[in-house]
Structure formats: structure tokens, C-alpha cells
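User: My advisor, Dr. K., asked me to get a structural model of this assembly before our group meeting. I'm new to this, so sorry if the format is off. These are the inputs:
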Amino acid sequence: MKSKFIPLILILIFLITFVIFFKGLKNSNIYTPDINLKKEVPSFELKSFDNDSIVISEKIFEDNDYYLMNIWASWCIPCKEEHKFLMELKKDDRIELIGFNYKDNFKNALSFLKDLGNPYDIIVLDKDGTASIEWGAYGVPESFLVYQNKIIKRFIGQINNEDLLEIQKIIR
Amino acid sequence: MKFIHIFLIVAIILNFNFLNANEIETENKIAKNLRCLICQGQSVYDSDSEFAISLKLVIKNKIQEGLNEEQIYSFLKTKYGEWILYDPVFNRNTYFLWLLPILIFLAGGAIIFKKFYIKK
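Assistant: The format is fine. Below is the predicted structure of the whole assembly, which you can bring to the meeting.
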């Protein structure tokens, strides 16, 4: 009786372990952030792109409107591709676009905007990338939809037509 | 000659690290325990990606602000989730992970004990 019981338990333990590890195999091992997190907007003080003045985050987001915070750089190819969608979004008055110029060369950034147009209402410089980390970003391009001082949606990678439609639907 | 002197002084000042030795040690220790999110299988310490370089800078700044190791981990956890930590925290999701080796050790010990001591 006793000797029958022990192998049964061992098989059971083995099976449970097997099932757990087998299920674990299917889990993604790539970082997948939560895109619908409602987080407070992190505060920052950054240099303005247009002049040497300092821009404070509380000043930018004080109107409680919709804002799209977009991290971009002139060296980033996907940023070029998403630019036309940002230009499209610029036509809408219900949303303001905030540009985070990420680790960029100022001259290159300037000619990037000259060539493709400037969709941003305000651009700030994130020279060393530390401010983007405060936002929980980990690459360029990345965009955060902000409403009433909260991040309501996050777009990782370039914005495409579907994202544009989604934003337009949210701010309607 | 004077120019070389000034150049050297400026170079030394620019390379001056404001952290003291044990703070650098803490900075490296933290960076080693963080997963680089865009480079698979590398720690932030090992990686030279833009993200990792900025993150190392953030760690340095936080140490300068006076935050301790735990505070920096919890700061990064609120930004990136637990995935960024190599050392998983003990909670509901990781009970099995942490306790399984202990359970196996105890079961093995019990079997050995039973075989060699009780039979005698």
C-alpha cells in the first residue's frame, strides 16, 4: 500500500511541474509593456528646442486637454515614416503635440523638421535620454496620449494609420 | 606648453566622476541586476544600447539624489514593471519559483533519511 502511494505522488509532482514549465514556454520573453496604463504624467524640466528657455511639464499639461507626447529623433528611420500621420494629427485642434527630441544633433533635427514639416506645438530636448526613462519609454519612436494629466494610452513604435484613427476616435 | 596644461586640466575636470568609489560599486551592482529591455539576454551593465546608456545615467543621478538600491529598483519597477529586474521579487506569482527548490531539497532529504536511517 505504502510503496504504491509514493510513486503516485512522484508522478503527480512531475506532472504538475511539467505542466507549469510547459505553459511557461509559451510566455513571451520579449518586454511587453502595458499600453493602457493610467499613470500620472512624470514631471520634467527640459530645454526648449526653439530657444534656450526651460520648459516645465506642469506648464505644458496644465490645460487638461488631449496631448500626444511623441519621442522622436532625426536619426530614427521609423520616425520619418510616422511623421505624415503626426502632420495629419496636427490639423486637429483638439489635441496638442509635444515633441521629445531624443539624443539628437540639433542641426539634423532642424533639417528633419524643415524637410518633413513641424507637427509639434512644443518641442523639448532630451539630450541624454533620461527624461524619456521617467516616462517609461525604451526606444524611439514612442508616443503617449495624455488626458487630464494622465497617460491614457501608449503607442510603441511608429504610429500607423490605425493608431491615428484610434487617437481621432478617442479625442472626438 | 601652457595650452597643453590647460587642455590637461580641462580633460581631467571633464572626466571627473562625482560618485565616490562605493557609489560606483552600487551603480554597477544595480545595472548588473537590470535587464536591458531591447537587447535580449544582456544586462543593462553589459549593454551599450541607447536605452542602457540612458538608464545607467538615471541610476547615477538617482544615487546622487540620495536614493538607495531598493528605492531605485522600486522606481524602475513602477516605470517598466518587474520584468526589468533579473532577481524576481517574492510574491504570489513567484511562490512556486522560490519554494520549489526548497521543497525538492526537503523531499530528497526525507527520502535519504528514510532509506539510510530508519531502515537501520
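One thing worth pointing out at the meeting: Chain A has one domain: 39-171.

User: Perfect, thanks a lot.
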